[in-house]
Amino acid sequence: MKRAEAGFTLTELIMVIVILGVLALAAIPIVNSFVGAWQPDAARMIQANLRYAEELAVTSNRHTRIAFSVAGNNYTITQETGPGTGTYANIANPATKENPFTVDFDTLSEFPGITISAVSFDGQSMLEFDSLGRPYSVSGGTPTLLASNGTITLNGALTITVTKNTGLVSC
């Protein structure tokens, strides 16, 4: 008597492929929802960095700037080289010791899919804190006290607010 060969039929293989395809399609919304889960964490990191810049300006008696780039999906923090000099230099990130202090969401593995979708500090993308912690918008290198609250928007949904006059940062 001839023994049957072990293996799978073509029909069985096709059914397995179809089932795996259906499972993969069902998983896409779950994976996409992770981006939404990371938004609050990314917002808290930006909030903490803005507060750090404000505290640095107050404690060192030197203005500190945060330049946001929507196109570059990043921001960089710089500080006056001396009180009242108006000349700014890169600073090191106190947590990572990297200089310049730049946060780039395109390369930051902790927050995949996060984008800076809009920034407005009275229509500008640069924020400055003075030695009293007051927020300014910066246009062409010239700081002007914020006339309205500044905002940073992530993924078109989550907004971080910098309150005019006080510099309070909230999200």
Structure, described:
The strands form two sheets. Strands 1, 2, 3, 4, 6, 7 and 8 form a seven-stranded antiparallel beta sheet that branches. The chain has a four-stranded antiparallel beta sheet with strand order 5-9-10-11, with helices on one face. The mean pLDDT is about 90. By secondary structure, it is of the alpha+beta class. The chain has one helix at about 10-60; strands at about 65-70, 75-80, 90, 100-105, 115-120, 125-130, 135-140, 140-145, 150-155, 160, 170. The N and C termini lie far apart (about 75 Å). The chain is built from one helix and eleven strands. A hairpin with a 4-residue loop joins strand 1 and strand 2 (about 75-80). About 30% of the residues lie in helices and about 30% in strands.
The global form is elongated
Strand proportion, as a percent range, falls in 25-35%
Mean pLDDT: 89
Helix content class: 25-40%
Radius of gyration: 24 Å
Give a count of the beta strands, DSSP E runs of length 2 or more: 11
Low-confidence sequence ranges: none
The run of helices and strands is: HEEEEEEEEEEE
At a glance:
The protein is α+β, with helices and mostly antiparallel strands.
Question: What's the layout of helices and strands?
Answer:
Layout: H1 10-60, E1 64-69, E2 74-80, E3 88-90, E4 101-104, E5 116-120, E6 126-129, E7 135-139, E8 142-145, E9 150-154, E10 158-162, E11 169-170
Antiparallel strand pairs: 1-2, 1-6, 2-3, 2-4, 5-9, 6-7, 7-8, 9-10, 10-11
